[in-house]
């Protein structure tokens, strides 16, 4: 009897371990890329984050969060709301990249556009997911400035059909406009990165 219980316990432990490894692999296989910039205010950007699920099961991204820090203090935070991404498919997540003040935001945008590699910046990205809509799994990853900006505005590995290649250049153009507005004396944010009047919508879906 005891032997049977021991064998059963071992089988359960092995099964749970295999399940954990599988869930971990499926959750961490998600790929992220910049999807565009929306509304802009004096200390934040509304952003779209594209997500690719190259696995064969649905994965729900409950949230993507990050505190942005440096030796001199806090820079701000990233808050992305969730969505379910079907197998072998891509989706979009919406969120905000917020900064402690306008000067911090200006510094960050300048760093990104100049491809700064030695900036005093660190981000711990926390991704909360549910595999098959049932099994929760969270993980985190540390990024320096270049790696973080590539996730938010660029594109790393991307195994879904749409390669997002055109989006990265559009986002850079949007950041240049953000930089120009912040550099102008007495700037006022009344829209987003594309300019124009309140009723015009640009080709990439950003209201201007």
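^ Assign residues to that structure.
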């Amino acid at each position: 009897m005891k032997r049977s219980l021991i064998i059963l316990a071992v089988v359960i432990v092995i099964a749970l371990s295999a399940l954990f490894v599988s869930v971990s692999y499926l959750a961490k296989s998600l790929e992220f890329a910049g999807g565009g910039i929306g509304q802009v205010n004096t200390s934040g950007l509304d952003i779209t984050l594209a997500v690719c699920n190259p696995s064969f099961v649905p994965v729900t991204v409950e949230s993507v969060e990050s505190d942005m820090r440096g030796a001199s203090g806090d820079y701000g935070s990233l808050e992305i709301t969730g969505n379910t991404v079907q197998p072998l498919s891509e989706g979009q997540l919406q969120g905000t990249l917020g900064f402690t003040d306008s000067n911090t935001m200006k510094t960050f945008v300048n760093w990104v556009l100049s491809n700064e590699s030695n900036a005093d910046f660190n981000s711990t990205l926390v991704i909360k997911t549910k595999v098959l809509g049932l099994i929760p799994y969270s993980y985190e990853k540390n990024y320096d400035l270049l790696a973080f900006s590539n996730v938010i505005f660029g594109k790393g590995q991307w195994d879904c059909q749409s390669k997002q290649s055109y989006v990265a250049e559009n986002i850079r153009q949007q950041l240049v406009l953000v930089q120009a507005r912040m550099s102008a004396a007495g700037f006022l944010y009344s829209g987003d990165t594309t300019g124009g009047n309140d009723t015009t919508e640009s080709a990439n879906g950003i209201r201007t």
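Confidence is low (pLDDT under 50) at residues 8-25, 194-208.
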